[in-house]
Amino acid sequence: METKGIKYEFNAMPWKYTGPAGWVFVSIPDQMSKEIRKTFKNEEAGWGRLKTIAKLGNTEWKTAIWFDSKMNTYLLPLKSEIRKKEKLDLDKIHVFLIWI
After folding, report:
1. What is the pLDDT at residue 1?
2. Taking Cα atoms as reference points, which of 95, 54, 100, 58 lies closest to residue 78?
3. 65 near 16, Cβ under 8 Å?
4. Which of 80, 86, 68 has the alpha carbon at shortest distance from 28?
5. Which of 42, 48, 57, 74 fits as disulfide partner to 28, beta carbons 3.0 to 4.6 Å?
6. Where are the domains of the chain?
7. SS (H, E, C) the chain
8. Which residues pair with 95 in a beta bridge?
9. Can you give the pTM of this predicted structure?
10. CA 72 to CA 14: how far, in whole Å?
């Protein structure tokens, strides 16, 4: 997959949303989120959505990050397909890369 834009790398522990859908996310670190928001806010679509390419382990995919105004950070959703492919452990810190 072709990667363009600015690369961000961070370590984070996935967490599961407590609502009915049960989505799994990682929170992008606060300082990194502030930098991303300052740089790319004018490119956000509805609800603070920002297109990105993400990578976990050997798996790279097109996705979006979402700005959560309550947490004041961006969230990267982790689809079931990605979690299964990478045997994601929710109780472990993982290395994530995103390109915006």
Report:
1. 63
2. 54
3. no
4. 68
5. 74
6. 7-99
7. CCCCCCEEEEEECCEECCCCCCCEEEECCHHHHHHHHHHHHHHCEHHHEEEEEEEECCEEEEEEEEEECCCCEEEEECCHHHHHHCCCCCCCCEEEEEEC
8. 11
9. 0.91
10. 17
- Please tell me the distance from the alpha carbon of residue 72 to that of residue 92, in angstroms, as a whole number: 23
Tokens of 55: 């990578």
Alpha-carbon distance of 11 to 45, in angstroms, equals: 26
- pLDDT value for 2: 64
Give CA–CA dist 62/35, Å, rounded: 21
Instruction: List average pLDDT for each run of 10 residues in the chain, which is 100 residues long.
Output: 83 90 93 96 90 97 96 96 95 97
Residue 46 is predicted with a pLDDT of: 86
Nearest 5°: the CA angle 94, 55, 2 is 165
Q: How far apart are CA 84 and CA 76, in angstroms?
A: 16
